[in-house]
Model the fold of this input.
Amino acid sequence: MPRIGLTLGVAALAALSGATAPAADLKVRLQMTTSKDDVRATSKERTQYFTDRMVITEDDKVRAIVDLDAQTLTLVDKLHRTYSVATFETLRARAGKARETAGEMSPGTRLRLGLDSPVTVKRTGRTRQVAGQAAAEYALDSSHARGRVWVAEAIELPPAGREWEKVSASLQGDSLRPGQQLSMEAMKLEGLQMLTSLKVKVNKQVLHSRSEVLEVREESPPAEFLTVPQGYAKQ
Done:
């Protein structure tokens, strides 16, 4: 179950200036970097759009379209020119199977992977500017993962983002990946996550991930982003 559009969004940038207005469509552009043991870093840009009833995630390989009215998630594979459509009901069924798999894991395996480790979340009191927004720092720690998240607390998720955040929680199976619990706790922070930096231990390797907002502004998605491109085969 891909995690898309769960941590980013703005109800209305007008709120920052004291104006009252309905939520506008929002564009958020991010830079995402991952590496193993501080080597072999890979980086890519991703753009997310929030409309009244849709959440769209776009990068050079994949387009994900969440339609809250139709209750569907459409994944477009640009490399293979294919797409798939799954209903929320289907995704919930998959999550149920994942929970069954997690329940079958031995206590020793769960301990080794740190799947049941509690996560602590602490506001550090420090702030920094990210993409022109003041962001408060939070520290998150567990036995196998730790991270820092900077949140623009004056900015809140738009309606589509808030609803998708709630729906996606029901689509998640039990965590089978080290660090997933920490990521889930980070999702609960109020506001727009401007910068996240996570470090996860997997056996003898250390995985690093970083996501930083480069740009956030009111802008509607291009019309072609709302649909599957012509000529793509359904899987």
